Amino acid sequence: MFLAVKNMFKSYQGESVLCGVSLELEVNQTLAILGKSGCGKTTLLKAIAGLTPAAGQIYVQGQDINLLKPQQRSAVYLYQEPLLFPHYSVFENIAFGLRLRKLAPPEIDRRTAQMLEDLELAEHPHKMPHELSGGQKQRVAFGRALIVQPMLLLLDEPFASLDPETRSNMQALFKRLTAEHGITSLFVTHDLKEALKMGDRLGYMERGKLDLFPDYAAFAADVRTGMSAEIEFWKKL
Amino acid sequence: MKKVILAVLFALFILPFGYLVLLSVASSWRFPEVFPSQNLSLIHWASLSRTGVDWLSSLATSALVAGVVGCLSTTAGFLSSHVLSIHSSRKLWITLAYFPYAFSPVIYAYCLSFMFNVLDLTGTLGGVLIAQFILTYPFAVLFFFNHFDQQLREMEALARTLGSSTTVVFWKILLPISKHTLLICFFQVFLISWFDYGLTSVIGLGQVKTLSIMVYQYIGEANIHVAAIAACLLSFPPLVLLWFNHQFVFKKV
């Protein structure tokens, strides 16, 4: 198993946010976690990234990473906002992680140029973040995360602030790039359709508890996911 | 109409400085005359050259105190605010930061003076520096507190997951993003220190002669023309800083 999370517990001021969360994920898979606001899905991602302490074990390729610092975990966290570094150009934002790893400058240039091609941003390397559209910013944020080839990509509703068309394009881009780069990811969303499109595996989180489903049928059968209600709605039209 | 209003506002801004310059070159100017009655001359300015050492020394002392206090308070305020932005008791600390501003600087100085006497810091440059730092450090903390908002904290967290150490986050992310805010804070602390009279006079006991102390000294001696010269010297560096900020900071914000 590539990723195994066991018995994660976390509470804020006496209120439990994670109640014994466990999950397993194979390499190159995406686990889409559906859940309402405040159910604990963001806390789960932050705990895996090392941005918030939580009790439990997190194994990546058999190694417990729960005591490692965020920068040692190779787990990149993507927020809802692209959070591009405003003082760096598109090129420098994407190359940021490579420069941290002290790669040779020609190698950084080559890999960043390739990533810009993949993101269809090859014409905008020198633009500053404020000169980009919302979709372009989110693509740069993706490129910045993918270029360091993280073992885990943690996505916290990354498309929630985009318009429907850009969102759809970004979902397609995400599927293509994660497949090309062999990325294992956890994708958190409160949008049913997005969870179905993004996830190879599906989970539902409620009040700090995560339920994983073996297949789409099991996911659809659980009334909490809203999938059966959605199907009924379309049938009645 | 807009131009007229702007011209009036500009004139109102310039008027006090113009008045100071005029007063410094007037040899006789008595109420109720609108302008000096005799020819203008540089006689008072020329007297500067005779006592030039004192003036230069005061100018240097003011610049040293304001520069050091500006650097120290801005740096300490920036770092403290950064820590406070994620501290569980930040509301308490921020409330405490308002404490020095509950009094006037002179009353605050008298509150501090006992401790400074015990530590043998009164009448020394070091004492004035520490006293002004105590006054301006909370200002800098309050100034930066809203700067470290959720977006900046998330940007820091993201940079860490990309592989940045705390040091790298500080130098490559926090500092470049905050440079304009840092400059503005430095500028404001510099001005607070530069124009401070109350703390400097109580803690410095008149032995640390900054320009503001000189101005009040001449006003006290009813030497209004020399006081005007001192005030001109006091006003000039802040005007240069204001121009510098306008040219290189505000335009880029």
Topology (SSEs and partners):
The complex is a heterodimer of chains A (237) and B (253).
Chain A: E1 3-12, E2 15-25, E3 30-35, H1 41-49, E4 55-60, E5 63-64, E6 75-78, H2 90-100, H3 105-118, H4 134-146, E7 152-156, H5 164-181, E8 184-189, H6 192-198, E9 201-206, E10 209-213, H7 216-221, H8 227-236
Parallel strand pairs in A: 3-8, 3-9, 6-7, 7-8
Antiparallel strand pairs in A: 1-2, 1-4, 4-5, 9-10
Helix pairs in contact in A: 2-3, 2-4, 4-5
Chain B: H1 2-25, H2 43-50, H3 52-84, H4 90-97, H5 105-118, H6 125-145, H7 150-161, H8 166-195, H9 198-204, H10 211-220, H11 224-248
Radius of gyration of chain A: 18 Å
Order of helices and strands of chain A: EEEHEEEHHHEHEHEEHH
Shape, principal axes of CA atoms of chain A: globular
Number of DSSP helical runs of chain A: 8
Roughly what percent helix of chain B? Answer: over 70%
**Oligomeric form:** heterodimer
Put simply, the count of helices of chain B is 11
Strand order of the largest sheet of chain A: 6-7-8-3-9-10
Mean pLDDT of chain A: 89
CA gyration radius of chain B, whole angstroms: 22 Å
SSE arrangement of chain B, N to C? HHHHHHHHHHH
Biggest chain-to-chain interface with counts: A-B, 26 and 16 residues
N- to C-terminal separation of chain A?
43 Å
- What proportion of the residues of chain A is helical, as a percent range? 25-40%
How would a textbook summarize the main sheet of chain B? none
Span of the ends, CA to CA of chain B = 29 Å
Number of strands of chain B: 0
**Structural category of chain B:** mainly alpha
How big a fraction of the residues of chain B is strand? under 5%
